[in-house]
Automatic annotation (TrEMBL):
Protein name per Swiss-Prot or TrEMBL: BMP family ABC transporter substrate-binding protein
Keyword annotations: Cell membrane, Lipoprotein, Membrane, Signal
Main localization of the protein described in the UniProt heading: membrane
The keyword Repressor appears for this protein: no
Family in the record: Belongs to the BMP lipoprotein family.
InterPro entries: BMP_lipoprotein, Peripla_BP_I, PnrA-like
Pfam families given in the database record: Bmp
Highest classification ranks of the organism: Bacteria, Bacillati, Bacillota, Bacilli, Bacillales
Residue stretches making up the ABC transporter substrate-binding protein PnrA-like domain: 57-354
Species of provenance: Paenibacillus planticolens
Length: 355
């Protein structure tokens, strides 16, 4: 399958020109809704000014739900921005389990949506099945590659952005023990893990990284338990890539901060300091899903849908990286992060990835 990259625009760009990461909600499966978090106003402008779009765009969430404070929420914020700026109409169906994927995708086909989004690696097989059976419908998917002429796939080089937050963790740990909490042990999350560990080791080979996979993207209680175990073992920084399971990592850290414990969490997908605060969020490995969703939806609105192609976004495409503001990271460490970013973009460093 032919790959294509484009540089994603940002309303604000990091001093380390970075960035562009996996999943609770209140709607029920098979019920369309638009009741969700407010759109990210920093997202790219979709349609030409003054032209009202006639597109109807549906989004099927992964099991983490549209309010996961992570990539489902980011995708929905992107669609809401597309709606408010273009005049198109958007809605979503929430998946309570993987058994809902095909049902929800088919519901949007039946409702004749102009574009149907699937959010998450685990939806790949379901989208392939539905796309092959409905060749006149257009689909797009985040974090998976679906080989079909009516599906545009968007993937990210999470390992590159995770390498940079690994550099931060390796330089800022005081205990030389660092944790990683993942959702399911699938290729997209392994990219987070491998990139993170490589970044830590690049600057601090003596640091120990403890890996814990909870097996779920929608279980904050499991995330909290995993974080408690890692912090009890002496770690002072945990990076999570676990969707709303990661909320539990933050909750555990917040409780310990109240007891004056010097511990931190590195967030994922969004700038999670906006949800959990700067007191506990060291930084975040942002994955600009919202902008990718806007870009593909806008391309369709301009009759430029790239069905059958893959957008693969890393540091060079501004697809992954750090937030614009990092008040908890000293300037000298941010400078070091930038140095590593340049080396990755220039291919002087090859960041390991999942096979």
């Amino acid at each position: 399958m032919k790959k294509k990259s484009w540089v994603m625009s940002m309303a604000s760009v990091v001093m380390i020109s970075l960035f562009v990461t996996a999943c609770g909600g209140n709607t029920t499966s098979n019920t369309a809704s638009t009741a969700a978090p407010a759109a990210d106003k920093s997202a790219a402008t979709p349609a030409a000014a003054g032209k009202k779009s006639s597109l109807t765009v549906g989004m099927v969430t992964d099991i983490g739900g549209v309010n996961d404070n992570s990539f489902n929420q980011s995708a929905w914020e992107g669609l809401k921005s597309f709606e408010s700026q273009s005049g198109g109409k958007v809605d979503y169906l929430q998946s309570q389990s993987d058994a809902d994927y095909v049902t929800n995708l088919n519901q949007f086909v039946k409702n004749k949506r102009s574009l149907i989004w699937g959010i998450g690696f685990m939806m790949g097989d379901a989208m392939k099945q539905v796309a092959d059976a409905n060749k006149d419908s257009k689909f797009a998917i985040i974090d998976a590659v679906v080989d079909a002429p009516n599906v545009e796939s968007v993937t990210f080089k999470e390992n590159e952005g995770s390498y940079l937050v690994g550099v931060v963790a390796g330089l800022m740990t005081k205990t030389n023990k660092i944790g990683f909490v993942g959702g399911a042990e699938i290729p997209v999350i392994k990219r987070f893990e491998l990139g993170f560990v490589a970044g830590v080791k690049a600057v601090n080979p003596n640091a120990k990284v403890v890996i814990n996979y909870t097996g779920a993207f929608n279980a904050p209680d499991q995330g909290k338990a995993a974080a408690a175990t890692i912090y009890n073992d002496g770690a002072d920084i945990i990076f999570h890539a676990a969707g709303s399971t990661g909320d539990g990592v933050f909750n555990e850290a917040i409780e310990r901060k109240k007891k004056n414990k010097d511990i931190w969490v590195i967030g994922v997908d969004k700038d999670q300091s906006t949800t959990f605060g700067n007191d506990v969020t060291l930084t975040s490995m942002m994955k600009r899903v919202n902008e990718a969703v806007i870009r593909v939806s806008t391309d369709l609105d301009k009759n430029n849908f790239q069905g059958g192609k893959v957008q693969d976004l890393g540091l060079a495409e501004n697809g992954v990286g750090l937030p614009e503001k990092n008040p908890n990271i000293p300037a000298d460490i941010l400078k070091k992060v930038h140095e590593y970013e340049v080396k990755i973009v220039n291919k002087e460093i090859t960041v390991p990835t999942a096979k």
